[in-house]
Write a structure and sequence with these properties.
By secondary structure, the chain is of the alpha/beta class. It contains nine helices and seven strands.
């Protein structure tokens, strides 16, 4: 059994779901669940949609208060909806919560995906983005090993600042921003168990090196202000103003 695990990790994982369900990703998933649970516990509505990682959606959204929860992915993974995230077959202003789980780093159309998320969200609806942080040890390993195309170090990692610029242009307001996970990017759990001191030191002294970026936005809809035409005048005092009947040194028109 031990030999099988080492062989599987050496060959790589078929998807990011498999990596999270393995021993290497369990620690990171536990900390992510602790961070996102208070956010989802205060999110109410009828429909939520998670794009990416459908295999862990049930565990990740365990505390979510949205009534109907759906997952979306391509035909390779067992999701409830199979569609292109850049052209969602969902009505506008109909979804209360959208979660992008490691999808922006693995798509060639990140702007189109974000525009679709903005379209389907109701006003003040929440968008949660979870992806690897390029300014971390995980991002450094991705920089050197992305050409190998091995999960989870494949794809293009975007900085939180760049994502925030995109979101502001679309009309989103940022509510929360967390760094999650400070263990080194080592695939062997037998080694990471002996590096707790490194994890605690990084968490306390270098918090910017968190493995994951957790960003929470809300859809901002500015109310329309009616423009009054210039030819429409308002009377401050209706009717004529009575002249004073007495007064010293006052002159009146004949």
């Amino acid at each position: 059994m031990r030999l099988w695990k080492q062989t599987t990790e050496s060959k790589g994982f078929a998807s990011i779901d498999d990596w999270y369900l393995g021993e290497s990703g369990q620690f990171l998933l536990d900390e992510l669940e602790q961070r996102i649970s208070p956010i989802l516990a205060t999110t109410f509505g009828y429909y939520s949609l998670q794009i990416g990682c459908p295999g862990i959606a049930q565990r990740l959204q365990e505390s979510c208060r949205v009534k109907h929860q759906f997952t979306l992915d391509d035909l390779r993974l067992p999701a409830k909806i199979h569609a292109n995230p850049s052209m969602l077959p969902i009505a506008s202003d109909s979804v209360d919560l959208v979660i992008l789980m490691h999808h922006l780093s693995n798509t060639g159309e990140p702007h189109a995906v974000l525009r679709e998320a903005f379209r389907i969200l109701i006003p003040e609806g929440k968008l949660v983005i979870i992806d690897f942080n390029p300014t971390s040890l995980w991002g450094l390993r991705n920089f050197f090993q992305s050409w190998l195309e091995k999960v989870p170090f494949n794809g293009h990692f975007y900085t939180a600042r760049r994502i925030d610029d995109w979101m502001r242009l679309l009309g989103f307001d940022q509510h929360r921003f967390y760094r999650v996970g400070y263990m080194p990017p080592i695939q062997k759990p037998s080694i990471t168990r002996h590096l707790n001191w490194l994890e605690k030191g990084t968490r306390n002294w270098l918090p910017v090196l968190g493995a994951l970026n957790l960003l929470v936005y809300s859809k901002n809809i500015s109310p329309l202000t009616p423009v009054r035409h210039r030819w429409v005048t308002r009377k401050i005092l209706p009717g004529k103003i009575a002249r004073p009947s007495v007064g010293r040194g006052m002159k009146y028109d004949p």
